[in-house]
Write a structure and sequence with these properties.
13% helix, 207 residues, 3-methyladenine DNA Glycosylase, Chain A, alpha+beta, globular
């Protein structure tokens, strides 16, 4: 099936903004306990390495925590925020540049009940309840630091062809929660599929 064909390495080794817009509509696939869980990627944020004050690679600084961020495009960079939420990023470009795309939200395609169970959700779900935010996305797919540095080209966590969004369906705006980043806080590097109900709030087209 074409939608589940793994994306090639060259897809991820382009400019970060190019990957960020092209990855919308692709499938994030997780094989878990013999079941395939699938989210269609509907919202992302781009982080531009050493030149981006909001990036973990700002000024080119390297730590044990962000080591995978400097790998070649196509691997996962996973970190923990607030001591409780994991965030999944796709490393982009060539090794050493520290660029990545944060996966902010996904639309459930397969394994919805399992993902809701992972989220400990007992009420009738509304759009966004499964994976409408980076922490929710990781919880739904059981993604943690164990995936940090792993390839997204194949294996138990990968990105496939999916159903790419057309450029006319995309909307851009400033990234969320980075007021500390000075001028970079206003850069329009948050991208989403316009009108998709699974995009996290505040939705960029509602402003």
């Amino acid at each position: 099936m074409g939608r589940y064909r793994n994306l090639p390495a060259k897809f991820f080794r382009r400019s970060t903004e190019e990957v960020a817009t092209d990855i919308l509509g692709r499938f994030l696939v997780r094989e878990l306990d013999g079941e395939r869980l699938v989210l269609r990627i509907v919202e992302v944020e781009a982080y531009l390495g050493a030149r981006d004050r909001a990036s973990h690679a700002w000024l080119g600084r390297r730590t044990e925590r962000n080591r995978s961020l400097f790998e070649e495009g196509g691997v996962a960079y996973v970190y923990l925020i607030y001591g409780m939420h994991y965030c999944l990023n796709v490393v982009t470009g060539r090794s050493g540049n520290g660029d990545a795309v944060l996966l902010r939200a996904g639309e459930p395609i397969e394994g919805v009940e399992t993902m809701l169970g992972r989220r400990c959700w007992r009420r009738s779900p509304r759009p966004g309840d499964v994976a409408g935010g980076p922490g929710k996305l990781c919880q739904a797919l059981k993604v943690d630091r164990g995936f940090d540095g792993s390839s997204l080209l194949r294996g138990d966590l990968r990105i496939t062809e999916g159903e790419p969004a057309g450029t006319e369906d995309l909307v851009a705006g400033p990234r969320i929660g980075i007021a500390y980043a000075g001028e970079a806080a206003g850069w329009p590097l948050r991208f989403a599929i316009r009108g998709n109900r699974h995009v996290s709030r505040p939705q960029p087209w509602s402003k």
